[in-house]
Structure formats: structure tokens, C-alpha cells
Amino acid sequence: MGQRVLVVDDDPTVSDVVRRYLEREGFAVELAGDGQQALDAYGTERPDLVVLDLMLPGIDGLEVCRRLREQDRTLPVIMLTALGEESDRVLGLEIGADDYVTKPFSPRELVLRVQSVLRRAAPAPVSGELVDGELRVDVARRTATLHGRELALTVREFDLLVFLMRNPGRVLRRTELLQQVWGWTFGDQSTVTVHMRRLREKVEDNPAEPRRILTVWGVGYRYEHA
């Protein structure tokens, strides 16, 4: 079997369908029915990715995501959210989820999202370093440092920073960022807004007055060398 995926959902029908689709694509799948089982399974199985429902009995999905992030900042997490849970979805992105799929969803779509996130999380095949003053990004090792200290970036935050630094001075629309960084041809543009805010908190000396990641009001963002 291939890479390991932990699927966390209290609906056994959903879990079984997702498991079968993922296994068909060569993934090894572990199931958990609540938050505590998810945390226990992470401790023993060390999955390569977690598919995490927000609405769980006991420890809810947001708290599970928060605890997973405390243990492993690079672990890819895809959230499953109900259609009307926009505020929870945004909060999940705020605490470090890399992607989300809205219920009801196509199992095939979820498999494609899993493949996309894992592909982006894999080490880059070529070496290279991006430098902006005290901000240094090693693309091959997927690490970034600022003032000599390593930054705790999630998979999507790292990809977003690399794309910005490779396109300095360009005005980047949110739709373009969704396509280039997330691989989405459509989607909720608030995802970009949330990730930009989190990224600013990590790469700007003063996020309230950013020098690198600038907002172009009504359009998108522009990266400038500090």
C-alpha cells in the first residue's frame, strides 16, 4: 500500500465510501469515528494526511486540527464541512487546515484533493533558494527562515509564499492564486484571504503594516521585496 491517510468521520457510511475510493487509488487508510480516536490513531499510525470532519462527538474537528498542528505543523489536513458552516470553515483554515471539501461531496473530488495536497507536500525535485533580505526559502527542503529562525508554515502557506516570491511586483488576483497554489478552477476566495493573513503574521515584522505582502484593494495581492 502507498501513503497513509487517516479518515475521521462519525458517519460509518461516509467513512467506508471514502476508504474504498482512496484504497482504489493505492492509499492505505485508517478510520477514526471521533476526535479522541483520531488523536490516538495519529500517535500510532503517523499518517501522511488527515481527512477530518468538523462535526465530531467528544473532541470536535477544530480542536483535533489544533492539536495535530501543535504536534506536526507540516501534516496535511483536509476538512470536511457542511454546506452552511462557513464560519467554522474559515476558523479551520485559520488554525492550519490546508484544504476543505463541502458536504455532500463527490468521493472522486475528495480523492483528487488528497492527491493534490500530498503532491504539493512532497519534496521539490529541483533545488533552489529564494532570498528576500532576512527571509530565506529553501524550495527543495521546503523550509523557510526569517532572521535565522525557521518559520512554522503549513503546506499551503509554504506554497503560497514560494509563488509570491517567484512573482514579485505582479498583481495576483485571488482567482489566479486559487488556480496556481490550490489547483482549484473555482472555489471560495476567502480561503486565499485567510492564508494571506496567516502568512503575513509569519513573514512580516509588523503584520498591521506589511512591507512584503501588499493588498491591492478590489483585485488581489502583490509581493514586494522588503
Automatic annotation (TrEMBL):
Record SMART domains: REC, Trans_reg_C
Gene3D superfamilies: 3.40.50.2300, 6.10.250.690, Winged helix-like DNA-binding domain superfamily/Winged helix DNA-binding domain
Keywords: DNA-binding, Phosphoprotein, Transcription, Transcription regulation, Two-component regulatory system
DNA-binding span(s): 127-225
Annotated GO biological process: regulation of DNA-templated transcription
4-aspartylphosphate: modified positions: 53
Top-level taxon of origin: Bacteria
GO molecular function: phosphorelay response regulator activity; transcription cis-regulatory region binding
Residues in OmpR/PhoB-type domain copies: 127-225
Keyword RNA-binding applies: no
Record's GO cellular component terms: cytosol; protein-DNA complex
Domain Response regulatory: 4-118
Record's protein name: Response regulator transcription factor
Lineage of the species this protein comes from: Bacteria, Bacillati, Actinomycetota, Actinomycetes, Micromonosporales
